Amino acid sequence: MARILDPQAFLDSICDLLKQGQKNVPIPVVGGSMVPFLIHGDTAYLDLPDTPLKRGDIVLYTRTSGMYVLHRVYRVNPDGSYIMVGDAQTELEHLPSGDQIHARVSFVRHRKKINRPGQLRWWAYSHLWLWLLPLRPWLMHLRERLRT
């Protein structure tokens, strides 16, 4: 009989590995909230943040419900709170505290290619795509129409 892993327990153990000093801990991307930068089945590699988080960073955090989420930092507020957004979303989410952030994505494997900060694709999504937030619904619709 196949065993099904509880996602909450899996990510709890990933966070424990990071606290123990593990680097580049891989997690599978599940869901579509980070499309088109990340798709279901890609892999994100996590590290503990070693520098202050900034706009465009992709982080693993928990919502107040305890659910783990992998989204991008939209804004770092002066009071230490954060505004988050998925690349496929237009609704912003407020994180009252940096204590909810567990890891930063150091690089990703997207469709078998490695993407790292500093590369053009990474820069485009962490800067240009955030700036285009109000136009995302239209751009995503256009993208889908062009693909068919």
Which tags fit this structure?
single chain; 29% strand; alpha+beta; eight-stranded antiparallel β-sheet; 3 helices; 148 residues; 25% helix
What's the topology here?
Elements: H1 7-19, E1 25-28, E2 43-47, E3 58-62, E4 68-76, E5 82-85, E6 93-95, E7 101-110, E8 113-115, H2 120-131, H3 136-147
Antiparallel strand pairs: 1-2, 2-7, 3-4, 3-7, 4-5, 5-6, 7-8
Account of the 3D structure:
- The structure is a single chain.
- With 148 residues, the chain is an alpha+beta fold.
- Helix content is 25%, strand content 29%.
- The chain is built from three helices and eight strands; from the N terminus they run H-E-E-E-E-E-E-E-E-H-H.
- It has helices at 7-19, 120-131, 136-147; strands at residues 25-28, 43-47, 58-62, 68-76, 82-85, 93-95, 101-110, 113-115.
- Strands 1, 2, 3, 4, 5, 6, 7 and 8 form an eight-stranded antiparallel beta sheet that branches.
- Strand 3 and strand 4 (68-76) form a beta hairpin.
- The radius of gyration is 15 Å and the shape is globular.
- The termini are far apart.
Biggest pleated-sheet summary: 8 strands, antiparallel
Characterize the quaternary organization of these chains. single chain
Query: What is the helix tally?
Result: 3
Q: How far apart are the first and last residues' alpha carbons, in Å?
A: 39 Å
Approximately how much beta-strand content do the residues carry?
A: 25-35%
Shape: globular
Mean pLDDT figure = 93
Write down the Rg: 15 Å
Structure summary:
The chain is built from 3 helices and 8 strands, in the order αββββββββαα.
